[in-house]
Design goal:
single chain, alpha+beta, Nuclear Transport Factor 2, Chain: A, 6-stranded mixed beta sheet, 4 helices, 6 strands, 33% helix
Length: 133
């Protein structure tokens, strides 16, 4: 089952990068929780359910012309997946560009994402899931 979880996360990241909110939400359970980090945390620390998460995605995409996840490692943790990579961003109004280390912990239950927590550093993410490097 865990390889299937890795594939769900891979598809969800691809949907995010294409700004396909409906497709991304199709990989999530109705009770999805999204905890963004840094620039993605536009209005709230936690978004719950499809409606809140969809609204938050829209707000992020209105703020940033570019917001893509690149160059990743996906670590299979059984019932969850840890993604370690880079985020490339460009502010819509400022045109300021960022290329930063970024990570996300994706929890899967019954083939659907139930929790996504973002981190501004790989080390924070590794610490949060109990891995050390």
């Amino acid at each position: 089952m865990s390889q299937a979880n890795v594939e769900i996360v891979r598809k969800a990241i691809q949907a995010w990068n294409r700004r396909e909110a409906d497709l991304l939400l199709s990989y999530t359970a109705p009770e999805i929780e999204w905890m963004p980090a840094g620039p993605a945390a536009v209005e709230s620390a936690v978004y719950r359910g499809h409606d809140e998460v969809a609204s938050a995605y829209a707000a992020v995409w209105q703020t940033w012309d570019l917001f893509q996840f690149e160059g990743s490692q996906l670590r299979d943790l059984g019932d969850s997946v840890l993604w370690l990579g880079q985020v490339k961003m460009r502010g819509r109004a400022s045109q300021v560009e960022l290329d930063e280390e970024f990570a996300a912990h994706w929890v899967v239950r019954d083939g659907k994402l139930i929790r996504i927590q973002a981190f501004l550093s790989w080390q924070d993410a590794l610490d949060a899931v109990g891995l050390t490097e």
